[in-house]
């Protein structure tokens, strides 16, 4: 199992979650961040610090955001498992469903 970042992160990218992750498995895309499903150790440290409540345990992802479990996995299709986000930096690999979302206005 893994934790998943869902739609509330889109165009917000607060990044408070990154500071909490002991294994540096939260990676930055163009419009949101993604948790590596194999590198995540399910510690739960990231979940409470997100100011927009974008992070959920895989079993608890709200119904309307269920597709984000796959979106988090799909982000790593070409990237594979780098074993740490800091050295990778921002990657332009947002899945199509994220790229296609309307820009979020303030
Ligand atoms: Fe996004 Fe929340 Fe992290 S907005 S970058 S999931 S703290
Ligand atoms: Fe990292 Fe733990 Fe979240 S391993 S992605 S802080 S659940």
The Cα radius of gyration reads 12 Å
Bound molecules: FE3-S4 cluster
Distance between the termini: 33 Å
Number of continuous helical runs: 3
Strand order of the largest sheet: 1-4
How is the biggest beta sheet arranged? 2 strands, antiparallel
N-to-C order of helices and strands = EHEEEHH
Low-confidence blocks of residues = none
Q: Which percent band covers the strand fraction? A: 5-15%
Domain 4Fe-4S ferredoxin-type: 31-60
Protein name: Ferredoxin
Function: Ferredoxins are iron-sulfur proteins that transfer electrons in a wide variety of metabolic reactions.
GO molecular function, one term: electron transfer activity
Structure overview:
- There is one protein chain.
- A hairpin with a 4-residue loop joins strand 2 and strand 3.
- The protein has 3 helices and 4 strands; from the N terminus they run βαβββαα.
- The longest helix has 8 residues.
- The strands form 2 sheets. A two-stranded antiparallel ribbon has the order 1-4.
- It is globular.
- It has 106 residues and is α+β, with helices and mostly antiparallel strands.
- Helix content is 16%, strand content 11%.
- Bound molecules: FE3-S4 cluster (F3S) (2 copies).
- Keywords: 3Fe-4S, 4Fe-4S, Electron transport, Iron, Iron-sulfur, Metal-binding, Repeat, Transport.
- Pfam families: Fer4.
- Its cofactor is [3Fe-4S] cluster; [4Fe-4S] cluster.
């Amino acid at each position: 199992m893994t934790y998943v970042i869902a739609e509330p992160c889109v165009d917000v990218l607060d990044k408070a979650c990154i500071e909490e992750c002991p294994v540096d498995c939260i990676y930055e895309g163009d419009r949101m961040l993604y948790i590596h499903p194999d590198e995540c150790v399910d510690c739960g440290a990231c979940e409470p610090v997100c100011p927009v409540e974008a992070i959920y345990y895989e079993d608890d992802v709200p119904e309307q955001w269920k597709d984000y479990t796959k979106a988090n996995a799909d982000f790593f299709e070409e990237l594979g498992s780098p074993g740490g986000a800091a050295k990778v930096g921002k990657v332009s690999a947002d899945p199509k469903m994220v790229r296609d979302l309307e820009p979020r206005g303030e």
